[in-house]
Structure formats: structure tokens, C-alpha cells
């Protein structure tokens, strides 16, 4: 009886490892985009609204419109790309199975024993959760007490940002989608995170409007999504400040444009007749 149970458990583990490996391949196929430069537009944001839910509904064009025309050389990741990077963050799970260590490029995780907490990447935690192999423990920063403290600090101090995890938006969205039953008071937690996101985004826009001529800007405690939104405007603003504060550079640029060779095509009179070609 014991040997039969152990054999069934080993077969179940092998089946699960195969499914995890298949999930890894499909995960990389879905994100086989090379992290090239993508630009968020209003139409793209609307098309991704159902997939990214309310936590990804950033008004990403507002800052770009403040900067004028967008620079095609400035990288702007899509929400899916940022979420893909956030899936490597470690979270704590409580397995309900016994399983050997898993060896990945990013490291080794396991062995896993029932009811003994273990830390794994978020994507692996989601894969285990989907198959009913574990429960996910929400991070400590997702507690109502901590979120309330962060929200109060964001509202009181308009000149600084509170310290939050770099991928707090992406992590919370994935947990809301795949581990709803593991988050106590999920509706209150979701509401607090959305309020924090809105207050921080408003502070970003307000502070960037107060930019003055400077060679460097220091903004602390921004999240990955907020950095992605701010990057085009900040880079273009600093470039404009640098050019306007250096007249020599502006003169060199103007003279360089004037020195560009222009190819003139010979003018042919309208009444001119074509001469027949002479055969040799």
C-alpha cells in the first residue's frame, strides 16, 4: 500500500514537472518580443484594458503630451513586459505536496514539503497555485496596516514618495488574479493599492510640471510602472534644458545643419529639344 502510494506520488510529481516545463516554454513564447522599444498609445491602452485590469490603467500619454512629440529612441515598455520582469520576484508559498528540488537558470528551489513555507519566484508560485499544489502567502507590505500607513504618508508629504516595492503594482495584480482566496480582506487591500497608485501618479505629474533648468533630477522610491511612465518626459526635458543652457551647442547644431551639402539638379529649358543619339 505504501509503495503504491509512493509510486502515485512520484508519477504525480513527474507530471507536474512536465507541466511546469511546458508552462515555462509557453511563458517565453508569449513574451518572445526581445524587449524592444514599444510605445503606449491610447488605442493600445484601451485594447489592453481587459487584460491588465484597473491596476494598469495609467494615463501614460499625459506626461508624453507634456513633453511634446515623443522621441522614437526612448524605450517604453508595455505593461505585459513589466509584468514579465516582475514575475521573477520571490514570494512565500505553503506547499501541500512533497517534491524534489527544482533547478532553473535563476537558481534552485526546494525541496518542498507539505505545510513547510518556501520561497519561489512569483511565476512558479502562480503555476503551483493554478494546479492546487500550494497556497500563496501575501507579502507583508500588502497588509491593511502597512498600506494605510503608506497612503497617509503619500497624502501628507507631497514632495516625496513613500518606499514601496519596485513591482508592487504587478505583484498585487497577479495575486489578485490567481490567489484571491489567499488574501484576507482582498477588497480593502485592492482599494488601498489603487488609492496609493493614483496619489503617486498625481504627485509624479505635479512634480514634473515644476521642473527648472537642471542637469540632473533625483526622484526616489518610484515603482517600475511609474519609471516607465516618467522616462520619456524626463529624458526629453533634460535634453531641452541642456541645449538651451549651452548656446555653443545650439550654434554648432545650427552650423552643422547649414553645412549640409545640397545636391542641385541642372535646370533644363522647357523649349529644349532632345538631341538624337548618334550611333558609333
Overview of the molecule:
Belongs to the GINS2/PSF2 family. It holds the Pfam family Sld5. It is found in: Nucleus. InterPro entries: GINS_A, GINS_bundle-like_dom_sf, GINS_Psf2, PSF2_N. This protein has 280 residues and is mainly alpha-helical. The chain has a single domain, classed as Methane Monooxygenase Hydroxylase, Chain G, domain 1 (Up-down Bundle). Helix content is 52%, strand content 7%. It is built from 11 helices and 5 strands. Strands 4-1-5 form a 3-stranded antiparallel β-sheet. It starts with a helix and ends in a 22-residue tail after the last helix.
Which features would summarize this protein structure in a list?
280 residues; mainly alpha; Methane Monooxygenase Hydroxylase, Chain G, domain 1; three-stranded antiparallel beta sheet; 11 helices; 52% helix; disordered N terminus; nucleus; DNA replication
Number of domain modules: 1
Overall pLDDT score:
73
For the largest sheet, list the strands in their spatial order. 4-1-5
CATH topology category name? Methane Monooxygenase Hydroxylase, Chain G, domain 1
Question: Which range best describes the helical content: under 10%, 10-25%, 25-40%, 40-55%, 55-70% or over 70%?
Answer: 40-55%
CATH class: Mainly Alpha
Biggest sheet architecture: 3 strands, antiparallel
Number of helices: 11
- Identify the overall geometry: globular
User: First CA to last CA: what distance?
Assistant: 104 Å
Compute the number of strand runs: 5
Structural class: mainly alpha
What fraction of residues sit in β-strands?
A: 5-15%
| Helix-strand string | HHHHHEEEEHEHHHHH
Amino acid at each position: 500500500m505504501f509503495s503504491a502510494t509512493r509510486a502515485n506520488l512520484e508519477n504525480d510529481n513527474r507530471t507536474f514537472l512536465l507541466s511546469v516545463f511546458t508552462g515555462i516554454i509557453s511563458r517565453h513564447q508569449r513574451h518572445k518580443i526581445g524587449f524592444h522599444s514599444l510605445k503606449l498609445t491610447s488605442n493600445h491602452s484601451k485594447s489592453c484594458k481587459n487584460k491588465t485590469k484597473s491596476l494598469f490603467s495609467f494615463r501614460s500619454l499625459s506626461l508624453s503630451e507634456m513633453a511634446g512629440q515623443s522621441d522614437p529612441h526612448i524605450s517604453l515598455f508595455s505593461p505585459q513586459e513589466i509584468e514579465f520582469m516582475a514575475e521573477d520576484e520571490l514570494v512565500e508559498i505553503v506547499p501541500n505536496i512533497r517534491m524534489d528540488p527544482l533547478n532553473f537558470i535563476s537558481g534552485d528551489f526546494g525541496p518542498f514539503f507539505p505545510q513547510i513555507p518556501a520561497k519561489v519566484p512569483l511565476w512558479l508560485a502562480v503555476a503551483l497555485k493554478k494546479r492546487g499544489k500550494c497556497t500563496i502567502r501575501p507579502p507583508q507590505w500588502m497588509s491593511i496596516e502597512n498600506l494605510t500607513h503608506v497612503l497617509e504618508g503619500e497624502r501628507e508629504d507631497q514632495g516625496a514618495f513613500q518606499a514601496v516595492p519596485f513591482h508592487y503594482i504587478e505583484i498585487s495584480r497577479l495575486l489578485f488574479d490567481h490567489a484571491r482566496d489567499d488574501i484576507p480582506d482582498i477588497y480593502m487591500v485592492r482599494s488601498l493599492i489603487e488609492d496609493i497608485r493614483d496619489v503617486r501618479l498625481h504627485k509624479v505629474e505635479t512634480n514634473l510640471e515644476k521642473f527648472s533648468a537642471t542637469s540632473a533630477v533625483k526622484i526616489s522610491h518610484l515603482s517600475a510602472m511609474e519609471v516607465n511612465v516618467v522616462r520619456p518626459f524626463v529624458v526629453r526635458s533634460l535634453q531641452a534644458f541642456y541645449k538651451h543652457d549651452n548656446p555653443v551647442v545650439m550654434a554648432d547644431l545650427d552650423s552643422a545643419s547649414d553645412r549640409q551639402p545640397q545636391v542641385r539638379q541642372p535646370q533644363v529649358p522647357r523649349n529644349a529639344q532632345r538631341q538624337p543619339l548618334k550611333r558609333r
